[in-house]
Amino acid sequence: MSPALRIGTVGFALIAVCYGFARFAFGLFLPQIDAELGLGPSLGGVISGGAFAGYCIAIVAAAVLTERIGARAVATAAAIVAAVGMAGIALAPSPLILAVAVIVAGSSTGLASPPMAAAVAAAVRMDRRDMTNTVINAGTSAGVALSGPIALAIAGQWRLAFGAFAAVAAVLAIAAARSLPASRGGQGPGGLPPMSGPVLRLISASFLMGAASTALWSFGGQLVSRQPGWGPTGTGTLWTCIGAGGIAGAWAGTLVGRFGLDPVHRMFLGLMAAGILAVGSGLATPALALLGGALFGAAYVMLTGVYLVWGTCALPDRPATGLMVGFLTIAVGQTAGAPIFGLLMAGFGAGPSVTCFAALALLAGLFRAGRTPAAAPA
Fold it and tell me: Has this prediction a pTM greater than 0.70?
């Protein structure tokens, strides 16, 4: 098996579990968790924001640790942390314990991405790196797409779902320990990255996109469950559509290589805004809302792929740190966006809140990469 295929397969599965299950499945099951533990929109937003805050700390630590102890150890730790956090969610008896477990589970996503970028840089040919990175990144959508049918199959039994997710994460820890290179994947001096123009614009764009995305990642289940005829079946179907649409993110490297970062960036920000409005406005039919979910999923994963390529091009000698900059800032935006959206929805209702957050996505398009990487293979 070639290094690109081996690393791509393990990385895709690791990202699917850490992002799709450990981080974003909380939003899918939030209506059922709320009904059992009595969270409410504001507390649900604070807990979601806490998960994103845990991610912020973890991704910085992962970038530093990857450059010191290597990709294999950090990726294995990500899977173990995901298993522990999701087991905690499954067993949580109170909102406080749930909040701690959600933060631990969300931290696994921060640990997962930088070592995968370092593994790709260390073992995959140059002309396959962007494609391999963006295929791994698209694992998010596979995890989200799988969590929807699981929710449908077990009729909203969120404790059982998170217990099963924890078992899968434990298996992946073994796979990562056996399959990934130990290389650090970095050649730079370490420390803080230089705040060049491309890096600063990346920070601005990814912050706004991350904040906008919380409208659906944290509250998508609640937004559609408030509409007539939508219940656990409807929210599970929405999650499946978001995940299925996100598979398109695997082609981010190819599209960026062909058309450039800026055109792809602006186009998918527009699709993200359209998807948020279609799902959350309450004006669309269920079919159009599901289509909006697919658009949102495709746009989100494509945009994270854009920021991945943007970061690794801005810091080519430190790929783990380059990825960290964009992904960390997405999470900072999500940390701020989740509680703000919860407060807006509690105070003004879903419609105005969704409109404001769709506008945030469009604002991110004002920032340009300023450079285009070499063409990626189709």
Answer: yes
